[in-house]
Amino acid sequence: MHFLPADTGSIGALRSAAAGCRACHLYQQATQTVFGEGPVPADIMMVGEQPGDIEDRQGHPFVGPAGRLLDKALAEAGLDRSQVYLTNAVKHFKHTTTADSKRRIHAKPNQTEITACLPWLESELGVVRPKLVVVLGSTAAQTLAGREFKVTKSRGKVMPWRDIKLLATVHPSSVLRATDRHEAYEGLVEDLKKVASSLARRR
Ligand code: URA
């Protein structure tokens, strides 16, 4: 991909280059590229779908309502956001606008957009060198574990992936939309506890 920097081993170089990415059309409607953030290297890398409205305005991943819910679930599972590298499969906010132009509504990225953005995610994996990748929701899960992957079937299991491990769980936004929010939230926390215990066993 010709937007990648010469030095793909530096997170700073990757972040700067991603700011100017035009590999798909999504940059046209977004405020900015929202690149991953967190310690480098990091034992845990978490991958969401794409930045939301607030992330797009502020330029940081998971800083809106879904991010706040994720922070709370992480803490309850015995993990700290500061130890996690957080990123998204797609780095620009894809949305539609309401008829009165007042609200921007999240739109799911398609395969072309996900594929165009993949070199950034692969580069992040190369630099962050996580021991465990947590995929949040089906877009991230299918981006990294294959189009057939079903989060509903395989969530909460630490599984071998490449030469490290992967765990899939639901996206925190789906918890916010769930009919039984409490149950959905507890399910997310339970899955995240497996991340904490899997890493504790390695030490
Ligand atoms: N949802 C995501 O998948 N990522 C974010 O950064 C925010 C909301």
3D architecture notes:
The protein has one domain: Uracil-DNA Glycosylase, subunit E (3-Layer(aba) Sandwich), CATH 3.40.470. The protein contains eight helices and seven strands. The protein has helices spanning 11-18, 53-58, 65-76, 111-128, 138-145, 151-154, 172-177, 181-202, and strands spanning 44-48, 84-88, 95-97, 104-106, 132-136, 159-161, 164-169. It has a five-stranded mixed β-sheet, with helices on both faces. Strands 3-4 form a two-stranded antiparallel ribbon. Strand 6 (159-161) and strand 7 form a beta hairpin. The mean pLDDT is 96. Uracil binds at residues 48-52, 55, 61-62, 64, 66-67, 88, 173. The site of uracil has 13 residues, from helix 3.
List keywords for this structure.
binds uracil, 203 residues, Uracil-DNA Glycosylase, subunit E, alpha/beta, 5-stranded mixed beta sheet
Structural class: alpha/beta
Average pLDDT figure? 96
Taken from the alpha-carbon principal axes, the silhouette is globular
CATH superfamily: Uracil-DNA glycosylase-like domain
Order of helices and strands: HEHHEEEHEHHEEHH
Our count of helices gives 8
β-strand amount = 5-15%
Q: How many structural domains are formed by the residues? A: 1
The overall strand count is 7
Report the sheet with the most strands, covering strand number, pairing sense and barrel closure. Answer: 5 strands, mixed
Bound molecules: uracil
What is the fold-level CATH name, i.e. the topology? Uracil-DNA Glycosylase, subunit E
Q: Uncertain segments of ≥5 residues (pLDDT<50)?
A: none
How much is the radius of gyration in Å? 16 Å
CATH-level-2 architecture: 3-Layer(aba) Sandwich
Helix content: 40-55%
> How far is the N terminus from the C terminus?
37 Å
CATH class: Alpha Beta
Instruction: List the strand order in the largest sheet.
Output: 2-1-5-7-6
